[in-house]
Amino acid sequence: MKQASYDIVIVGGGLVGASMALALAGIAQRYDLSIAIIDAAKAEDSTPTAAGDLDGRATALALGSRNLLDSIGVWADLASQAQPIMDIDVSDQGKPFGAKMHAQEMDQEALGYVLQNQHMGQVFWQQLTQHCDAQVAIIDQAQVLQVDNARQDSKLVYERTLEGQAEPEKVEITCQLVIMADGGRSSLRESLGMFNHQQSYDQVAVVVNVALDKDHQGLACERFTAKGPMAVLPLLPDVTSANSNAHNQHRAAIVWTQPQERETELAAMDDATLLAELQNQIGFRMGEFRALGERQVYPLSLSVAKEQARQGLAVIGNAAHTLHPIAGQGFNLALRGAFALAEQVHMACKDQAPLGDLAYLQQFVDASSGDQKRTVGASDQIMKLFSSRDKSLTLGRQLGLLAIQNMPLAKTVFTRSAMGLDRPLANVLAVPKAAPQTTEGGAS
Predict the structure, then answer these.
(1) Which of 67, 174, 220, 248 has its CA at a distance of 20 to 30 angstroms from the CA of residue 32?
(2) Predicted confidence pLDDT, tens digits, the chain (444 residues)
(3) Cβ 181 vs Cβ 35: under 8 Å
């Protein structure tokens, strides 16, 4: 078996794993650390492509998350494909009171941003391959078989089969710290006995993009109905359409929660019927829905890993927690966790301590646990409160929406928390940038 060594190994190269590597990249350059990302998929093409048409998942990025990415110098390359959320309309179907939030009212450039995951992932990989190749090695098409953190240094074994190889190659890596960012169904977490608390919501999410008949003007809508909430998020206009009046120029992303017994029906439903159902739920606040993209229907559950750090080992992202999508906080919470872990790695480097020292990892857990409890708890309680037609709960949430709308202080506190502005930025370092090329003779 081949041997290799790195200071830090990140298992999982999705949005969370890639953002973890970016949060660490400047620290790695400053303190001469080596990082490896191990991922089962083939590495992304480093050249972003236009994410046009109606397909592709999207993520609502809180303003606080935007500020985290800006602090390491990544936001500038994301901004051109980010749709600002200028206004948010929260309503309760069939009830008189709702709440409206406005970026101008909060004296902010936006309440948040919506990006298509494809573009965000491509920019993350472009940053890693173009600016961080001296610090970060990417090991793609590889499957991690086991992790052992029982010794002073952690060890893991992966196998990889590349084109032209008859047998998979096995490699054992020694490192100071293993970071597991391999998703909600993390087999590694299970194999290590880091069990999670899981609760099914008996609901499914329908995720689909729609074409609009008019400009959404940066409006996002959250609509609570008897059977589940619906979020409609604005997307950038499709400038790739040759015809400026193309039916899919104006677009939005929808996440619709429904009872689990409708899963098969919703997956098989024809587009015209689904369009009519979606329109009936949200009304015409954002215009008329004209066409649908490719839909995804999947079951919803809440899970939180009971153990998120051991000596030489940390768990982040969906491997640590999965949320109901009602408030769009899943990736934002994961990003804050990644930066909180990077901050502790930074502290360990300053103190010349081992990167996997449990004392620093426990500080990461302590710093993240309060954020997790607030965010997970809020998403869970909002889902239960707004999915019930119980008269007392209906009255309670109507009074809550009325208070948010009419009490400036309550509205400010609620909105700043949703925007992720109630937490300080993590103390990390910017992504290394290549030095400007010079012409012959030394002029830049």
Answers:
(1) 67
(2) 899 999 999 999 999 999 999 999 999 999 999 999 999 988 754 344 434 457 788 999 999 999 999 999 999 999 999 999 999 888 877 675 677 888 888 888 999 999 999 999 999 999 999 999 999 999 999 999 999 987 889 999 999 987 777 788 999 999 999 999 998 878 888 888 887 778 888 999 999 999 999 999 999 998 887 788 899 999 998 765 544 445 558 999 999 999 999 999 999 999 999 999 999 999 898 999 999 999 999 999 888 888 999 999 999 999 999 888 876 788 999 999 999 999 999 999 999 999 999 999 999 999 898 888 888 777 776 666 656 556 666 665 556 665 556 555 555 555 566 667 777 889 999 999 865 444 444 433
(3) no
Nearest partner of 100 among 235, 234, 222, judged by Cα: 222
Q: Is residue 240 in some structural domain?
A: no
Is position 99 within any domain? yes
pTM above 0.85, yes or no: yes
Measured distance CA(133)–CA(398) in Å, rounded? 53
On whether residue 359 sits in a domain, the answer given is yes
- Picking from 6, 26, 72, the residue whose alpha carbon sits closest to that of residue 346 is 26
- Report d(CA 347, CA 355) in Å as an integer: 9
Q: Can you give the residue range of the structural domain that contains 43?
A: 2-198+301-418
| CATH at 144 | 3.50.50.60
Please check whether residue 267 lies inside any domain of the structure.
Answer: no
